[in-house]
């Protein structure tokens, strides 16, 4: 296993039936990206592979970003898209307190809510957050992850609903955040980059992307 993960940037082929299916069905997309990691990972294979992913969409193109310890694009369906893979080692080694960065992440802002006077063993239901509540959630999670946010720009993303007989009967509300920040805790940020942030990671949430930014 590599010391640092790798990132695949896949320009999706809009004419591929598999791509069209996966963009409609987050459960199928998860199955497809898991084909890029080694077999035999045992229980919790996504977690053991260190796999996180996100779909970035514009008016003209869709790009699939996949991060994991090891990735083999040969596992993708024929004609799925053009993949470029790079090591993330330079990004991790560059992290230091005070470093200005640009960021992007798709997250599932939510909280667990228990009925009043419910037994402490009752976990309660997961409630999606929106508006200012979602922004505050992201501020808290980013701070815990070692980032001091300077600018946040939220963008609504189509919610995802897991499909299949064994899928949980719930919809995941998603938001994309773009902006600028400063690194305040490189160790915490490294952990967040490796493990992702928040819920719904199997459905395209949690992958934090960073790029250098000019200090203001």
UniProtKB/TrEMBL annotation:
**Sequence intervals crossing the membrane:** none
Kindly give the Pfam families that the UniProt entry links to this protein. Answer: CRISPR_assoc
Instruction: Give the signal peptide, or none.
Output: none
Superkingdom of the source species: Bacteria
The protein, known as? Type I-E CRISPR-associated protein Cas6/Cse3/CasE
Please name the source species.
Streptomyces qinzhouensis
